[in-house]
């Protein structure tokens, strides 16, 4: 990474050195053959020659490296990551709230839990991570960006309303992502609750309940009365064990940005779900086109932490800019963090520049 000399650039672009030097002159830069050219200038030059700045080859891209599968022997069980999906008003938010409230530790009881886009609960001493963004949005938009963060989908269906269009959509999303579905038949307290009708409708969608000889776990719950919640959590753990939800905690961290914002006082704040490895204070990181060093980490209970293991959601401070939800975060060698991020920025800029060049040409013709 880093800057290249005029000579190297000429080689890379397949041009004479003198040609490059002349071009640089027209751009207002006097350069010699061994002079270093910064990335921005190189990108502008490339644009002049109509050369696209290519993406890093996989062997140089830390994100791609991080995606390489770990040795099976290094994998250990990690908490499952769960998303709640379902039709509007069937009780996704209520269920998430009910689970959070009934499974808080004494430490935070009565206190305010930090909203960081995901939270962990304990069930029989085991952790489960819930993504706090109910509905399809988070799940599908992140998946559209290539990020797969969910291990299990909880499909919420109101017992008094049954399968609705967004229920079917949610089933299709989970199926195409190959994420196992557990059904929570909610609002069991309602007078019109009819779980058998819900099961019938779900069976028609290919989700046959276990008690009917199928393999879909369906748990009757009431978010309002907080009933059935521990059954639901137990089933989540059961499915997670069957799926062998595992990761290698002993490697550089790899995770996904769940949400990110610019905080007035703290600068860019990104909620990261660590998926592999362990993220530590002081680690050099890249996320999309942003980079930095982990300055502080805050967990879902608002506590400062020094490290975050697989399936831990944490707020990360220390990035130079706000990454996008769905961006992969990777801990990298300090030397390359900046150059990789800068290459990504340069690539994005060159693409934008090409777009704007097109536009300005069009404008020119319009004026003529
Ligand atoms: P979402 O759109 O799926 O997030 O649904 P909400 O959680 O916002 O709930 C929609 C409505 O259903 C709200 O008025 C809730 O109070 C109500 N609701 C949610 N769960 C239950 C439940 O278990 N029992 C009853 N009776 N009402 C519920
Ligand atoms: Mg909601």
TrEMBL record:
It is found in: Cytoplasm. GTP binds at residues 86-93, 132-136, 186-189. Signal peptide: none annotated. Coiled coil: none annotated. Residues 77-246 form the Tr-type G domain. Residues 80-228 are annotated as: G-domain. One of the essential components for the initiation of protein synthesis. Protects formylmethionyl-tRNA from spontaneous hydrolysis and promotes its binding to the 30S ribosomal subunits. Also involved in the hydrolysis of GTP during the formation of the 70S ribosomal complex. Belongs to the TRAFAC class translation factor GTPase superfamily. Classic translation factor GTPase family. IF-2 subfamily. This is Translation initiation factor IF-2. It comes from Lucifera butyrica. The lineage of its organism: Bacteria, Bacillati, Bacillota, Negativicutes, Veillonellales. The gene is infB.
């Amino acid at each position: 990474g880093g800057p290249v000399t005029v000579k190297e650039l000429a080689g890379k672009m397949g041009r004479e050195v003198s040609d490059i030097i002349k071009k640089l002159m027209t751009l207002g830069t006097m350069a010699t053959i061994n002079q270093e050219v910064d990335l921005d200038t190189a990108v502008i030059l490339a644009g002049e020659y109509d050369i696209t700045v290519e993406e890093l080859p996989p062997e140089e891209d830390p994100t791609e490296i991080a995606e390489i599968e770990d040795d099976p022997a290094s994998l250990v069980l990690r908490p499952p990551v769960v998303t709640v999906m379902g039709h509007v008003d069937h009780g996704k938010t209520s269920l998430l709230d009910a689970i959070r409230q009934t499974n808080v530790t004494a430490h935070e009881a009565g206190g305010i839990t930090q909203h960081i886009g995901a939270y962990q609960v304990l069930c029989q001493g085991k952790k489960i991570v819930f993504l706090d963004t109910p509905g399809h949005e988070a799940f599908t938009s992140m998946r559209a960006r290539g990020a797969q963060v969910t291990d299990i989908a909880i499909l919420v269906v109101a017992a008094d309303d049954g399968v609705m269009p967004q229920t079917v959509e949610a089933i299709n999303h989970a199926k195409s992502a190959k994420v196992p579905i557990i059904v929570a038949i909610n609002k069991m307290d309602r007078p019109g609750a009819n779980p058998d009708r819900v099961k019938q409708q779900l069976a028609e969608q290919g989700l046959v309940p276990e008690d009917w000889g199928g393999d879909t776990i369906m748990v009757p719950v009431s978010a309002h009365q907080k009933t059935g919640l521990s059954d639901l959590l137990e089933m989540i753990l059961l499915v997670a064990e069957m799926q062998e939800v595992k990761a290698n905690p002993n490697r550089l961290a790899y995770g996904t940005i769940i949400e990110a914002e610019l905080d007035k006082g703290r600068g860019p704040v990104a909620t990261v779900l660590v998926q592999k490895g362990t993220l530590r204070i002081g680690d050099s990181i890249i996320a999309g086109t942003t980079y930095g060093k982990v300055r502080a980490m805050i967990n879902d209970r608002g506590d400062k932490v020094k490290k975050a293991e697989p399936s831990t959601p944490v707020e990360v401070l220390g990035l130079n800019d706000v990454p996008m939800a769905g961006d992969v975060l990777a801990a990298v060698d300090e030397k390359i963090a900046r150059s990789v991020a800068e290459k990504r920025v340069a690539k994005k800029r060159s693409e934008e520049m090409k777009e704007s060049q097109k536009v300005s040409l069009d404008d020119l013709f319009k004026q003529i």
